[in-house]
Amino acid sequence: MIISKASALGRRQYQEDRVSVISNEETGTFISVFDGHGGSSVSEEASTVVPTIWYNLSTSPEWQNTTLEQRLDSTITIMEHLFRNSMVGSTVSLAFIPPEKNIVYCAILGDSPILVGNSNTGQVHISPEHNVDTHEIDRNELVSRGVVVANGYQFNEERNGLQLTRCLGDKPFENQLSTVPEIYSVSLTENSWVLAGTDGLFSGHNTEAKNPIIALANNPNNNAWALVNAAVNFPTRDNVSAVLVRMSN
Length: 249
Hints:
Elements: E1 2-8, E2 17-24, E3 28-37, H1 41-59, H2 68-83, E4 89-90, E5 92-97, E6 103-109, E7 114-118, E8 124-126, H3 136-144, E9 148-150, E10 153-155, E11 161-162, E12 168-169, E13 182-187, E14 192-197, H4 210-218, H5 224-233, E15 240-246
Antiparallel strand pairs: 1-15, 2-3, 3-4, 3-5, 4-12, 5-6, 6-13, 7-8, 7-14, 9-10, 10-11, 14-15
Helix pairs in contact: 1-2, 4-5
């Protein structure tokens, strides 16, 4: 297994992305990606505490009979309680690869993508995005509740706008946001790769960058820096962060 990570400012003057990777042959590989907005306080603290939360859920005796999906869900629930009164917010995307390296478990809250690809077959699984433009179910739910949705944003009573439909924090939108993650798993082979990044890498708002990023990830000679530099030069106006895991050495 080869792991690389990279972050760049893009065209921003400040960095709100945070990533964390913990990898151990005996316990597996745990990846977390946070894309802060309105400030970096939530993404910074979340990236600091999430390894401990995951470790506690994975080693505590009372959690030994739970599934990995349940532990991922509880990890996000704990973080939601920690940041529910925060005025700023952050996405969270988690990926866990067990020691067997034959599957990856993913949890998504927001629009920071996780891609799982295979360099031989070219097949790629792309995570869902929880924002107004690209998640029709979330958008329709907001509209059914009388939330004003326009031009890719949802608006609260103070007329503040937010593109995301699910994330941590953002107390001004607490009655409109969902904190329920989408959790799923994807099988891995020795030719697989897992890419977790922020939406500066590519997103529903930057779909033209998707295929070039996937092509770079499919090339085993490229690392996370190659993908981040490509996104910055595309160019993106956002911060860009990526963690790239290749199953084969």
